[in-house]
Amino acid sequence: MDKKEWSVFEARAKIIKALSHPARLFIVEELQNGELCVNELRDMIGFDMSTISKHLSILKNAGIVDDRKEGTTSFYYLRVPCILKFFGCIREVMESNARQSNEIMKSCNLKFK
Amino acid sequence: MDKKEWSVFEARAKIIKALSHPARLFIVEELQNGELCVNELRDMIGFDMSTISKHLSILKNAGIVDDRKEGTTSFYYLRVPCILKFFGCIREVMESNARQSNEIMKSCNLKFK
DNA sequence: TGCCTATTTGGTAAAATAGCCAAATATTAA
DNA sequence: TTAATATTTGGCTATTTTACCAAATAGGCA
Fold first, then answer.
1. What is the mean pLDDT of chain A?
2. Close Cβ partners of A113 (under 8 Å, ≥ 6 residues apart)
3. Residues in chain B with pLDDT values less than 70
4. Closest CB to A13 among B1, B25, B96
5. What pLDDT score was predicted for residue A40?
């Protein structure tokens, strides 16, 4: 594959990678309902504030969120709402996986409790 | 956050993480056009065959692709076509990023060549 | 059986990621 | 100016990821 084409896939992967962590997924999902500051997210998620701050900077660096300063507080918000369409698809994958597991269980004559 | 809720985000993150590598994105995109074997993908991407095989197993493990054996050959195919909707959104993020860079350039009186 | 082809698996080294703590920065209030 | 608050940054360690090579596995065919 040529270098130029590969760099397109790298750029896409960078954005997706920014979403590939539970804390960051949680943040994106929460920001649907409006902006939040680092403090508030820390209280919801429970990691160290510095950890949350770094997750936010990864999302910001990917262009998924942006921030707005007010005094000493940084309010983060979703910059690209279409990200939310992602979740529908992820859900489909999970349901499809569950269906498959279910069939395997059945074929072994097992049942979910 | 409670443990159970967190595990949902972990499950989602696992699926997204499976997509967060340029080779794996390339594979998914190629599989839109029909199934391919490891060999063919190796020729297109250029990594070692064992590397490709491992990328495929990550995608399979996430439930995104599945395989069908024919003799010694494994044909891989997309199991969940909705994955493709992802790319539209990724593109939007990239365009939005480009727009922003462009505005920063402008505000510095610079232009793209 | 023994060889050839296609793929997977195990091992390993280098790089990236994630979390915490402590320290630095910045803004507001006293 | 000093103190208090909100956030970011640097440093460190532990873990995970990635890619290669070599070896193992499996099917098809002479």
1. 90
2. none
3. 108-113
4. B25
5. 97
The domain in which residue A89 lies consists of 82-113
Distance (Å, whole) CA A8 – CA A19: 18
Which pLDDT belongs to residue A103? 77
Is the Cβ pair B63, A19 closer than 8 Å? no
| Same domain as A42, residue A9 | yes
Q: Are residues A26 and A52 in the same domain?
A: yes
Per the structure, how many domains does chain B have?
Answer: 2
| pLDDT (0 to 100) of residue B102 | 79
| Residues sharing a CB contact under 8 Å with residue B84, sequence separation 6 or more, in sequence order | B28, B32
- CATH code: domain of residue A28: 1.10.10.10
> What is the pLDDT at residue B67?
97
Residues contacting strand D at CB < 7 A? A 37-39, 49-50, 53-54, 56-57, 67, 72-74; B 17, 20-21, 23, 47-48, 50-51, 54-55, 58, 69, 71-72
Sheet bearing B36-37, strands edge to edge: B36-37, B73-78, B65-70
- pTM given for the model: 0.91
| C-beta atoms of A22 and B6 within 8 A | yes
Do A106 and A73 lie in a common domain? Answer: no
- B23 and B53 both lie in a single domain: yes
Give me the CA A37–C1' C9 separation in Å, rounded. 46
| In a shared domain, residues B61 and B90 | no
